[in-house]
């Protein structure tokens, strides 16, 4: 027997071994217990298989990857079918189909045929090229792009342009300036003392303007304009640093979550 | 020292919490109270000893600029709801449909609140409202009745007129520049580092006889970043066709796959090599974010592309992709407008198009009048933003100084001021 | 001054693991072994870098894994500092009245679960303790499983709950922003039925709910798009509904500008979740024994951060040393 046969067989044996370890022999509902044991064991194995990519690409990773891609593609297809077609469209189209699919019939609605027609147009692309009607799918694409743009435009302009500009209009100079205040004695950047307040107002105004200058494309970045744009890129880099830190926190959380699963639910080392 | 600082921290925290709680209570009270059911609706209790003074001047007006389903009720606080007295716990609002004398309680608000928004009414119906104050011990004042009010529908929301003006201003300049670009006017665009690198990178892949990987982000075609990615893909694919190299485009969205196939096929056609176009190299993988990442990782380690492009919208996968690409020694060119993901691309890629540079690159490469014009039009938007921030900051500073009359000064800028300051 | 530096909120998370290591599980011996290994590993990496030799990436992966694994096994628990941003959400729910309705939107998938699931569970527990009615929904196709997990996690503590009266689950609808745009004014148009096809009108708790503002409070917990930003743009801005949020750490910095005007509070990453768990434990002592998932994450988190910071410092030292050597040889 060669490696190609040995490795999968050995893996399956090890898997069954772990499955038996996790199996609760005293459970009343043994099929449920088997299912629970299978879920946890498979979860543990798949986690380790994906982690193995950190060492190098290998058949275990490939297996987990293909399984993941296959299962998730199928999952999304099912979710799409059941939540869009079955739950949204069918209850307004046909009492008979609703009955058959165990959905309550909610009354006919003719306007539901519009999205259905668009959806069908999208499928024309799948027809053979010789029919020459594949271009009809572009109508759907155009509808999606245009309606999203319209939907986004005012919402974005209000929430992300006007609101943000109006909150950037802050005071670069505080009128009742009394000194550095608590900043030195209470070394805490989150403290909202006068100095910090003024400093952050300056940082915001200067940062926003220099950042905008960096993204100004109609003028060559030379001379004083270039210097402001240079400051802009520095501000951006500082922002990236902060963002990087926050993201690292998120990633570590995910790692901790996985390891906790491995140690607690799978291996049972910690309580 | 340490005790002191600790003390001040805790006092500070306490005060901030208290303050935010107060602000929050004032802000949320009307919202919270709408559903609350305060069981003091019995009108006979108004005759109880020690009933609080009733609120005065109860007004009910049709809510402005809506489709006719809301009425704003307001009143002057009860005399007992002032500092020193303070035995009013809140107000109860009643409503009756015109013609009937029967008032139903529809909601209540806390003390020191003098307005209530009644939503979900019928358009064109006439209503009448009354308001009573009540105390914690359950005594209710006599209700003060408002004049009748009829709900009306307005076609335009004049509160939003500044949004409209701004939209016309920016949209208008975009159209102006597109018009001029179409007429063949030369538009200046500053150079973007990284663009020159695109051709080199493709050339390198050809020399090495290895394929090119192009990821148009993980969003669908409804994201403008994906569209920018596709425009750049057209350029890249054309060069790939000319160099007789090979390009892989795995996508996460099915529509993106369709669009990418279209784009690449057209590029091959322009290059006159439509026979070399392989539709199977452009394929949908899965909608599941990390399933997609796992697959692309696999493609990278197995097919070892010499060049990787990541141009579009990216989320958590940015780091994983760029890291894997780095480990196989590929030249990497990235571009996205997702601020949170830029750090990873900047750290792990050879060239990164930061934010709007992605759109600029797309306009630059395609030379399309539409894209050039929008970019120029957006520059106008940026000038407006910069001017508004500067003027706003100056005005805010001057305005805060006592004794200095800036009213005339502010009046001159009133237009801009209301767009950005007063608009919200 | 020095002591003040240690105690300030900026720096204290750095030093506190050295002061207050609380061990459980395998006990203090393991904890000591872990710390010795950690220091030895860091020392080795330091030695390699100042010698100017490369440290292979896999070694870094392995050390990161061991560091976090060791910290998980020793069960380091760190004190959590509360912030007003999270506190606001807790207080809002605390001040709601019995029977008020809360909309909980879980817009994430299993990959975001370690950070976000604890928030969903803690908020749900808090709402049920206050006898509020919860309506679950999701904008993500994979969110349905997350809702099911949350319900499974909280059911044992509240055996008397009745579906449709105390809580309900309307599940997922495709359409991203479009879903939000519609439910801001008409909830039933997008969600005529709940997740299992029961007509919404037949659920007692949903009577009187016509649009998003009919919920006394909305808590949107999300890790991407569609998520919190879309909730603000399409629900809060136009309808004025009151909303709090729970964000994955990755997206938290971008969402801060919406606080406090457009959302009254935000839990950022596992730190935010652990703060909420702490407030819940204090307000409802029965949760003292509860497995606080996010709080458990914070210990290993801090150790990993210390490790990363050391790596960054080493890499910089090595960079400048290499530069110097190059300069000397040239």
Q: How would you describe this structure in keywords?
A:
heterotrimer, A: 271 residues, mainly alpha, 8 helices, extended, C: 330 residues, alpha/beta, Rossmann fold, six-stranded parallel beta sheet, 13 helices, 53% helix, 10% strand, elongated, disordered N terminus
Name the CATH superfamily assignment of the largest domain in chain C.
MTH777-like
Strand content of chain B: 15-25%
User: What is the H/E order of chain B?
Assistant: HEEEEEEEEHHEHEHEHEHEHEHHHH
Task: Please give the alpha-carbon distance between the first and last residues of chain B.
Answer: 45 Å
Give the percentage of residues in beta strands of chain C: 5-15%
Q: Biggest sheet of chain B, in brief?
A: 6 strands, parallel
- Measured on Cα atoms, how large is the radius of gyration of chain C? 23 Å
* Count of extended strands of chain B: 14
The third-level CATH topology of the largest domain in chain B is Rossmann fold
- Tally the structural domains of chain C: 2
Distinct helical segment count of chain B: 12
Biggest sheet architecture of chain C? 6 strands, parallel
What name is given to the CATH topology of the largest domain in chain C? Rossmann fold
Name the CATH architecture of the largest domain in chain B: 3-Layer(aba) Sandwich
Taken from the alpha-carbon principal axes, the silhouette of chain C is elongated
* Uncertain stretches of 5 or more adjacent residues of chain C: 1-25
Please, what is the average pLDDT of chain C? 83
Radius of gyration of chain B: 32 Å
Name the helicity range of chain C: 40-55%
- Which ranges of chain B are low-confidence, i.e. pLDDT below 50, for 5 or more consecutive residues? 1-12, 26-48, 401-424
Structural class of chain B: alpha/beta
